[in-house]
Amino acid sequence: MFRNRKSVTGLLILGFFVLIAIFADVLAPYSPTKVDNTARFQPPSAAHWLGTTHIGEDVLSQVIHGTRGVLVVGFLAAIIATVIAIVVGVISGYLTGWRSESLSALTNVFLVIPGIPLIIIVASTFEDPPLILIAAVLGLVGWAWGARVLRAQTMSLRNRDFIQAARANGEPLRRIIAVEMLPNLMALIAASFVGTVTAAILGLTTLSYIGVIPVDTYNWGTILNWASAQGAFRQNQWWWYLPPGLCIAAIGVALSLINFGIDEYVNPRLRSAGERARAMKKKGLDVNEAVTAVRTTEPHLSPTPKDHTP
After folding, report:
1. DSSP string for 170-239
2. Integer distance in angstroms from the first to the last C-alpha of the chain?
3. Rg (CA), the chain
4. Rounded distance, CA 257 to CA 273, Å?
5. Across-strand partners of 52?
6. Which three-class secondary structure state does DSSP give residue 54?
7. Which ranges of the chain have pLDDT less than 70?
8. For site-directed labelling of 250, which of 96, 176, 281, 307 has its Cα 20 to 30 A away?
9. How many Cβ atoms sit within 10 Å of the Cβ of residue 197?
10. The pTM is what?
11. What residues form DSSP beta bridges with 89?
């Protein structure tokens, strides 16, 4: 995975945003709520690299501080969803009978629950819903797909020889799952985690944009909400809405590239194809060339025996 250019590029982009989130207070040139009455609707300049809002707030500072909320919600929701998916998916895949069917039915119920409307209902019951609550709800409605994948893979593993040997030795269920099964599921768990982070970030920015999350909680979605409310799209004030939109797109691309690398690691066919492509590039061959290279030297042919039939 770490030899794959796609996954490495994705990790570098994601690491860049993580550093921005950690050092937001140091990197931001201004406070995100600082108002400059002399610089309203100002385009990018030396004083404000990404321009200002309708009341003179620095857009760059808001984007930098908004990165922290986006990543915290995305990763916290992914951790919650991944833990639930592992517990439900692996146990339901290993067990048989009514217990397995009950957990499978629970997974199917959560698959059809609409996430965004549920979050809107939960958030509307609070005057100022914290981001931790939003992350918890996003995690609770986002675990079902990962659980289904893990259940299917666990069902294929439970009849393998090493699982049967561990069961015959009398090992407890928790050790069979933790020691024997989970190491063989780590690639799928990582892919599920990355996909949940992507869904949680998109869910957070969507909820912020439509106004479910308080607008004073800075993230990229609330910046777009303010820009839309103040007519930045109509007046072509691109410096207000374009930077957060590009950040959402960039982190989505980064997570997608990481997921591509995980897919290539999990899928033996994709992994072998990637290894062949890298080997051909090292030899200076074009991987997209449709013509197969022909051997230039003829192999030594042994003489064919003569026909002595009269």
Report:
1. T--HHHIIIIIIHHHHHHHHHHHHHHHHHHHHHHHHHHHHTTSS-TTS-SHHHHHHHHHHTTTTTTT-HH
2. 66
3. 27
4. 17
5. 58
6. coil
7. 1, 215, 267-310
8. 281
9. 27
10. 0.81
11. none
* Joined tokens for residue 290: 């449709």
- Between CA 298 and CA 305, with CA 300 as vertex, the angle to 5 degrees is 125
pLDDT (0 to 100) of residue 40: 85
DSSP state of 47: S
CA 44, 48, 50, 53: dihedral to nearest 10 degrees?
-100
**Tokens read off for 168:** 């015959």
CA 293 to chain CA mean position, Å: 39
Q: Tell me, what's the pLDDT at 271?
A: 59
Integer angstrom CA distances of residue 235 from 38, 220, 228, 241, 242: 19, 20, 10, 11, 13
Tokens 């100002």 found at: 42
* Buried-state track 3-40, b at ≥16 Cβ within 10 A, e below 16: ebebbebbbebbeebeebbeebeeebebebeeebeebe
pLDDT score for 292: 47
pLDDT value of position 272: 58
Extract the runs of DSSP E, i.e. beta strands, from the chain: none
Q: Could you give the dihedral angle defined by the CA atoms of residues 295, 298, 303 and 307, in that order, rounded to the nearest 10 degrees?
A: 60
